[in-house]
């Protein structure tokens, strides 16, 4: 029998792969299947951002004289309906997992002591174990984080209604996504980033994303000294002594692997379980995948890691390859990225107008597309887009990059029209540039 600890993307996909191979598999999940992706992170952002975009598009069309009003948002109703849909999705995932032949046990804790496996306090036999216990929000060591009104993505469902003024602490994707949502809903939002905001993005793509965050106060290179309030949050004090009024504070300050229940394994300083390229830990017969092994903290990566672990448990030597795995950010537009190598010639261009961006042309904007090309081989080694539908587009572009696609290969592609995809024409343009250079 194989035991999988954790029912998020890595554990669930790994368990299903094992069961589909005919193995007896027991999956242990303390809460609900689907993990943080379904219940607190990815799907919550999808739900909130759908509403935020609707409001923003209505606001744009009202400014153009097309609509008479902009709809008001009922935040309590949004939260209630999100929970209802998440329950439905969780039941679908539960049924799918069981149909694959996996035994699912809820409400129990799976633990490891080296190669010894426990479900709560009962030791069980296991031929191999896949540990996929996920992560939790990192809470910075700042006075006042325990005040009422201070939230992480995990506790945000407890926020009863929209705040008048919200401060979001953090400089990454989560900070940007929630800031966009609550600004669209009508709150005054300030982002306070200890370093930079979205500093890992290409400058042109970052500039495009910042357009979607217009109207939001952004303070970079700014530490937070404390969060103040008498029982409930009242303000945020910055490192220079400035005080910002706030009804709510959201901590978007990263993730920490949840590995406390996994003892006897080699770990990094942050608690991330150390694995090799086959997802093997330092203990024979024990594998790990997903957020518990540390960055990149991406659902697509976690899913693949879970499958790679399962394949190796089954004796099929498989190596984890992160090439071309896309990641995304949801603002007014989708922002998606994939890479298959370093360096190269970077080409950027405005994206064509299409579904979701037509009316934005009136304001002089329809998004951005970008590729990086190896000038010697013509291979695409990086791609990014900030357009409606970018997430779907980059899934396929990332796969093609992994397969070694070149800009010349795009000559014969006939894409859908109308479309917001600017990568295909940019690739064709790059092919022409390289041909001319080599003549």
UniProtKB/TrEMBL annotation:
Signal peptide: which range, if any?
none
- Pinpoint the FAD/NAD(P)-binding domain residues: 3-306
Q: Which domain of life is it from?
A: Archaea
List membrane-spanning regions. Answer: none
Keywords, comma-separated and alphabetical: FAD, Flavoprotein
Its name, as the record gives it, is: NAD(P)/FAD-dependent oxidoreductase
Q: Which InterPro entries match?
A: FAD/NAD-bd_sf, FAD/NAD-binding_dom, FAD/NAD-linked_Rdtase_dimer_sf
Gene3D superfamilies in alphabetical order: 3.30.390.30, FAD/NAD(P)-binding domain
